[in-house]
Specification:
- The chain has helices spanning 5-14, 18-27, 59-68, 82-86, 117-122, 125-139, 150-155, 159-170, 187-201, 227-238, 252-256, 269-283, 295-309, 312-340, 353-363, 378-382, 394-397, 417-426, 453-463, 472-479, 499-514, 532-538, and strands spanning 28-30, 74-79, 111-112, 143-148, 173-177, 215-221, 241-247, 263-266, 287-289, 344-349, 367-373, 446-448, 467-470, 485-487.
- The chain has 539 residues and is an alpha/beta fold.
- The strands form three sheets. A six-stranded mixed beta sheet has the order 1-12-11-10-13-14, with helices on both faces. A four-stranded parallel beta sheet has the order 3-2-4-5, with helices on both faces. The protein has a four-stranded parallel beta sheet with strand order 7-6-8-9, sandwiched between helices.
- The chain is globular.
- The structure holds FE-MO-S cluster.
Amino acid sequence: MSIDPRVLKEEILQIYPKKLRQKRSESIVINEHREDGTVPEIKANVRSNPGIITQRGCTYAGCKGVVIGPSRDILSLVHGPIGCSFYAWLTRRNQTRPESLEAQNFINYCLSTDMQEENIVFGGEKKLKEAVREAFHLFHPKAIAIFSTCPVGLIGDDVHAVAREMKAELGINIFGFSCEGYRGVSQSAGHHIANNGLFKHIIGNDETEHSEKFKINLLGEYNIGGDGFVLEDILTRCGVKQISTFSGNSTYATMANSHTADLNLVMCHRSINYVAEMMEKRFGIPWMKVNFIGATATAKSLRRIGEYFEDDGLKARIEEVIAEEMAKVEAVQAVVKSRCQGKTAMLFVGGSRAHHYQQLFTEIGMKTVVAGYEFGHRDDYEGRKVLPGLKVDADSKNIEELDVVPDPERYRARRTPEQIAKLEAMSEMEFRDYVGMMPEMDNDAMVIDDISHYETERILEAYRPDVFCAGIKEKFGVQKMGIPCKQLHSYDYGGPYAGFAGAINFFNDIDRLVNMKIWRYATPPWQPPTQQPEQVAAD
Ligand code: CFM
């Protein structure tokens, strides 16, 4: 199959009106590793065009659903009409494991102020206060987070004033988020707003010191399908103390205490890089990007932790864990690779998985021909080196940038600039950096930001990949075209896919999917039904 992606791109763009064609042409790029080390520029984190059928979600989804929601003992209260609250009700597979049967866990609850017309007309603050009191008396949580849906911003309810008043009245931590759905161009704005809230209202509230030697936080790991459990197991076996995870399987207390860690590991750069940056500035904790998706990536990330702490005992334990786990992975990998080698994949997921999962496919000999994020920014595509040149547009200006300075009492640089420089020179380790997706993709791979449904159909028709990875909204449309769709948000009820054990699960699941013959019997819409028998026979 030889496809010229440049020709395909032009063909795809033909259908659009002139203005839209120009805009989309900047968000569909053909990857190229240039001599000066750069990749082409991509237009990202800009408004979707109405009617294009985007995969994106809203700002409220990013704040409540993604970043804060997975923390089990912060009671999430949605201020808005009940329709918005339906989507607050564990539609994401962020798992949690309470310490005991009695321990607080509000994840299964869906609390809403259920705004009615009267509240929209006369204001909803009174109803919100009553809801906060009711929630407090029912559940006695340590903290209550209030999330604003679109109408709250439109009618001007002040959730922050209500939160302050209720905090004083009830004596627990209560804070609000101005995360109205329209606040940004996607859920990415909600991540930023949530990060600011974590930083202002939670991080640093608990000074308990842990005696362990190697203390880290894992940022941007949400325990989808149990990924976080796998990572906790690996890190514990290596002798690394995980103070907190943001925010899979987390509690209020672990996040409040997270500033006592000595290193921040960032899994999902898009959703949590703000917290990493702010913690470094205020508390002196360095951060580095890791990737625990893929066995070799996991091993590499673990070794970096060993190098950071410069401890021979830790390094030896890490090597033991890697050796033990790799033996299991390699046994499965060899079989699956022999069956999947040369097959192709496409990945269209949020803001980090479309990159991370390419590693897993590479490990079984599969190539990613087209990929893109729903709401990634240019740095997630091209690497953080583009950050200084990024223009702040009106939509980004909408989101508060906290002015963070070193904490006069609690700032403690965990490593001096010289030590950081030495560590970077000694190994491949880079601090405060993310290389991005495109430098790690092949030349001529297609990269599409915020893909539209029409574009999805066209690339499927052209490439006929062996698997398309996306979400529930795309799944069945894609499968009707005779191409299996793997959900990479929810894992299709499967997983975990992180770490070594996760890699084994992924290899097996993909093997079953791409080698299943049933897909050849579906007639894609672009193929007349009469051609079907030949199609099957030719395969
Ligand atoms: Fe980060 Fe995520 Fe993702 Fe994301 Fe998400 Fe998700 Fe995602 Mo769905 S935080 S950016 S907002 S890795 S819910 S766990 S799978 S779109 S690629």
